[in-house]
Protein 1
Amino acid sequence: MDILLQQAVHTHHLSHEEIVSLLTAPAPAALFTAADEARKQFVGDGVYLRALIEFSNYCKNNCLYCGIRAGNKHAKRYRLTPDEIVQTAQKAVGYGYKTIVLQSGEDGWFDTDKMCDIIRQIKKLDVALTLSIGEKSREEYAAYRAAGADRYLLRIETTDKTLYEKLDPGMSWENRVRCLHDLKTLGYEVGSGSLVGLPGQTVESLADDLLFFQKIPVDMAGIGPFIPHPQTPLANEKSDGHFELALKMMAVMRLLLPDINIPATTAMESLHPNGRLVALQAGANVVMPNVTDTQFRPLYELYPGKICVGDSADKCRGCVEEKIKSIGRFVSSKKGFHGDFLAEK
Ligand code: 5AD
Ligand code: FES
């Protein structure tokens, strides 16, 4: 373990087998320390905050794990108007956020023109803008980029194609990879990531995920533990051990891609009372506080036990900042593009 860690720290290279042995080693304290040191060296002590706006929970897809899947007839659907989205972004800027993340299910109501309009309005606010709205054509991605979008989040979820296509019926793994490559070649900062603990997922496939992120290469990646949602076909699956495994994945990822932006994911905090702080001390350098209006938060239920559903945007802003300070870190005042910290050093 120690020799492998040394190697990863110095070369940022590990074989598939070596990644598997780091992910399966029983006492990961040294791994977390190594990831924390790499984080400090390559992205610093500043934490980038990204304001998350969950603007629609309509989705045409049917991912077996996801609470807002089209087949969940119990989900109460909502959709913010373009004006409401822009107003929420303005509010977020008022709280000091430098990045806005627009996230939704794959909702066809927001056609290319509507999205581009929203993007142009938000970009007038002098913020970085991230989209997380699913699989689109290259032309659509090009239009959003031309309208001003800077970054795009699209998790691969799993690199195991057979598992992916079983869990995401009707979707094609190749198309998802095509999306990521289109986004990269269009000049977006690309964020991907995995769900950890999916039924049928192996540690070998998790190692493949990390090598896949290195190959693209991604600018950001979020690792989230899978949390079974009661209104989905995976309701009876377990979430035991998913937090720990997701944390290990995240830490190894920091060693392999030392300067990328890695969020302490909300799902981590849903499984562990201080999950985001633990993650920030094991490789993460980003937090994405929710700024969605309180009335909609409970409806954007990808998984149960989501934190802060009853809280307001300003409460989360203050709470997150306090937590970050409590571990000797600070909220960065920068937009936080990939490589900014090293470039300014
Ligand atoms: N548990 C944890 N994360 C989930 N996501 C979707 N459903 C779940 C779940 N049950 C994640 C997916 C998606 C991101 C927006 O939310 O990884 O990419
Ligand atoms: Fe929302 Fe702590 S982050 S209340």
Protein 2
Amino acid sequence: MSPRPERSALVVAVDGPSGSGKSSTARSVADRLGLAYLDTGAMYRAMTWALLQRGTELDDPEAIARDAADVVIASGTDPMAPTIEVDGQDVSGPIRGADVTDNVSLVAAVPRVRELLVKRQRDTVDAALGGIVVEGRDIGSAVVPDAPVKVYLVADPAARAARRAAELGDIDATATEADLARRDEIDSTRAASPLAKAPDAVEIDGTHLTLEQVVDAIVALVEDVTQADPR
Ligand code: DC
């Protein structure tokens, strides 16, 4: 990987497993601090949606790598109105569908897909001159390893499943918990940039905290860093 110039804008990396509350937390932190926001999970979902549309065989990593190269994904970074487009089409609704959720871990495990999307993520970070909150699985460990603030957000499996089931309007939290466990297993054991806590990330367990308490904790971390190193 080529060396990157030193960055002056603030980057807050928020990583963690599905259902840990990353999205609401990262958006609120960005809104509170007047920063941009990037949901990298939405990019992997958008890629999965595009490949499903094309009929790519998703159990064939070579086919995924070949077809992924032509897909153009664009992310809007307003935390209160994030957008995601594939080849100019708004896909913010379809990427939350069950067919995408069931297949996204397969697509995200393909190194060529990660290479393409990580490049796009870094370009977005570099363009956010006023600072950005980036949420995902490998932001602090691989995408922006020099981010001055890194958070690893966790929650108990049952709390995560309850949150996800409520988001989906799905009352079967047990099935949701099994699905989250299956995705965690794939995301954490893949060879390319697995879900992992960066050694210098601050772990926050949100199981018994409100959204506001988690946001307060992250804002305090940001203030510590910006007061120690005002730019
Ligand atoms: O956060 P999410 O559930 O929308 O993420 C969708 C999938 O994308 C999830 O299975 C893990 C993967 N992902 C990833 O591999 N790396 C990221 N930086 C973000 C998400």
